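Each field is listed here:
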Amino acid sequence: MSTSYLTDPDTHNIAPYSQFNNLTFDPPYVMFSANQKPDSQRKDTVRNAELTGKFCWNLATWDLREAVNISAQQVEYGVDEFERAGLEKEYSRALPGNPVPMVKNSPVKFECVYHTTLRLPAKPPMGTVDVVIGRVIAVHIRDDVLTDGKLDVSKTQPIARCGYFQYAVIRETFEMIIPELGMSLCQTIGSTGIIDGTSQLMRII
């Protein structure tokens, strides 16, 4: 789920994006891609991220699945989709200017500064896609999904869209470290932030 707000800070937009990925880690960048609407208009989240220069990402989980589905509906620009989906808000703490709403019950959240949009032309009306890239400046992780100080993915039970209207939920993971190279990579990746107060917010430096 990606979120943003409109030029009116009191009107909030949220939408799920199945094409989401991290791109690098030092500093961390993430991306999501948004196809055009059936009327060939660009998605609200894309417009808002470009206009405000920021957005937040919230992990979509099994417990949030119904709200995720509701937030996928096409509604008029300016409708508060948090309210439509029955989602409680909390707000960004590291982004400059007006705070950006986040999903309070999501166990993992990123605060992102907008970086750029790569627009890929395709067949109308919905084929053209905007690939939005943002730099992560803060990461929120709820304490109850940590194991030995690390994010435990199985505790978050994230959902993933697999194509069509089919989804999967992750309840089990396994570790497989690349011989020799793996440990040095783990040490490098694990040294790119500072903890602010508790394990719940990491500011990226």
Q: What stands out?
A: The chain has five helices and 15 strands. The domain at 2-190 is CATH 2.30.110.10 (Pnp Oxidase; Chain A).
